[in-house]
Structures are given as C-alpha cells and as structure tokens.
Amino acid sequence: MTDQLTVSVLGTGIMGAAMARNIARAGHTVRVWNRTSAKAEPLAADGAQVCGSPAEAVQGADVVLTILYDGPAALAVLREAAPALRPGMVWMQSTTAGTEAIGDLAAFARQHGLVFYDAPVLGTRQPAEAGRLTVLAAGPVEGRGTVEPVFEAVGARTVWTGEDGAAGSASRLKLVANSWVLAATAATGEVLALARALGVAPESFFDLIAGGPLDMGYLKAKAELVLEDRLTPASFAVDTAAKDARLIVEAGRRGGVRLDVAAAAAERFERAAAQGHADQDMAAAYFASFEENENGKQGG
User: Fold this and answer.
1) Is the pLDDT assigned to residue 147 strictly greater than 60?
2) CA–CA distance, 295 with 290 (Å, rounded to integer)
3) What is the mean predicted confidence (pLDDT) over 275-297?
4) What percent of the chain has pLDDT over 90?
5) I need a surface site. Which of 92, 120, 148, 280 has the fewest CB within 10 A?
6) Among 274, 121, 279, 281, which Cα is nearest to 188's?
C-alpha cells in the first residue's frame, strides 16, 4: 500500500468521475470539483469531498488532476485555483488539450512552481470505471513517486513518453491514437448508413469480414450501440469527439500535413451534434449520414 495522498480532481464528467472513484478506492483522500456541481455530488457516496470551488478543492492537495473539456478550460480552472496552489504540488494534466495549449499550461505550472505532468489517458467510460485506462505520461523523474500511485489507481498501464511535460510528447501520442479511434468511429457510421441505403443487412457485412484482417472488435462494439439504440450513457460523447477531431486537424496543419479524414470526421461529429446527438455516444455520428428530419433507424 502506498502512502495516502490527497488528490484534487477538477472535472467530474464521464472520465473524471470514474477516475476519482478509483483513486478513492485505492485509499487516497479525494477532493472533487465540477463546474456543474450535480456531476460531482454523487462522488460523496464514494468517500470524496465535494468542494464548492477549484481553490477549495486544491487546498492541501499533493496531486491536482485536471480532466476538463479542453486546454483553455483547464487553464481557466487552474487560474481560479491559483490562490490555494503551492510550489511543489504535482499537476497531472489529463485533459485532451492538443499540442498548442500544452505550452500555455506548462507556462502556468512554471509560474506557480508546480511539478507538471502531461498525462492524457486512453480509454472510454468502461475502462475508466474499471481502473483500466492507459496513461500516457511525460514529466520529471524526481516527481514520479508522487504521481505514479495515481496512475496506478486509474490505469492498467503507464506509457512514459519523456521527462519534460512541457514538450507535449504524451499529448502528441494521444492525438495520434485518437485520430485512429475517431476515423474508425466515423467509418463505422458510414458502413451502417450505406448498408441501410443499399438494403444490405449489417450482419451480412460482419459475417463477410469475420476472422479476417478487416475484422475489428471496435467496429462491432460501436455498430451494436447504433443497431440496438444504446447510445446513452455515452462512453465518449459526440461533442467531445468533434472537439478532439478539430485538435487533430489543427495539429496536422501545424505540422505541415493535411488530414482529410480527420477533417471530414470533425464535420460528421459536428453535424450529428447539431441534430441533437451531442451528449450521446460518438457512434451517433451515424445519424450525420441522413437529413436532419431523418431518424436513421435501422430497418425503418
């Protein structure tokens, strides 16, 4: 058993709430805050202290964990917490922030003497709830004894990408991984939509590729959410997928490459969100293949 830590979790959405629960179950003291307090309050039943402000949440913390919508949101919340931050606190920054925002976050950490770890996580609701995420981490060796117990509480595996969180190596790897996840999700929706348009039963396609190199458990899992109308609760929401796709497109642009598939996926997610699917699982990008007044139901 590691020494007990006090961990502040700022952001208790799909991922943050599950991570906070697992940190508490590992025996650490957990203090949580969320802009919409109703999303944080259920964590009191898991032993977490629900706080009314970011500054209250980080008071006395050993590790501050941020898992918010994007980089600007994480920076804004840390600025609210600034009066209670102290030099030497460890900041585990797990928001999918993209490549540009990491520099701003690292600069804030330097300004306040925080030990900064770029630590996005790979996984969705189910692995988060099971404590089976993959943590992608970059940060100094000398602070790892404090942050690693938190990694172990939330994840099954930690992949170290460097010793300088400000360099953003973990966030860059996260964008590469997410580019594949989002492309596969968008393609799943288009396969189902095309099958519907052509009068092809989706099962015949799954049977066709079964056991071969094109077979993919992820494809079937996301397709089932659509076919069985199980898009809520979301494992990874449509609006978050749209945000991440735009971060991927921008990162590619800054690197001098054009990412047409990612750009198209972003448009699909945004279109599905505009149709009312923003809070559903990102598999709901399927509906973007249809006119807004078309429900897209299989077999309709």
Assistant:
1) yes
2) 8
3) 87
4) 95
5) 148
6) 281
Q: What is the DSSP letter of 4?
A: P
Hey, what amino acid is at 104? D
Distance CA 140, CA 143 (A): 6
The Cβ of residue 137 has, within 10 Å, a number of other Cβ atoms equal to 26
What is the per-residue pLDDT for 294? Answer: 57
Structure tokens at 272: 């599905």
What spatial distance separates the first Cα and last Cα of the chain, rounded to whole Å? Answer: 55
Q: What stretch of H or E contains 61?
A: none
Structure tokens at 71: 């980089």
> What six digits make up the tokens of 168?
């953003």
Q: How many CA atoms lie within 13 A of 181 on its CB side?
A: 22
Q: Distance of CA 232 to CAs 23, 216, 238, Å?
A: 25, 22, 11
Output the pLDDT for position 296.
54
- The span from the CA of 25 to the CA of 184, in Å, is 34
pLDDT class for 3, splitting at 50, 70, 90?
A: confident
Write b or e for each residue in 210-223: b if 16 or more Cβ atoms lie within 10 A of its Cβ, otherwise e.
eeeeeeeeebeebb
Any bridge partners for residue 158, and if so which? 135
Nearest to 99 by CA among 180, 167, 186: 167
Burial degree of 176 (CB within 10 A; 0-12, 13-18, 19+) = exposed
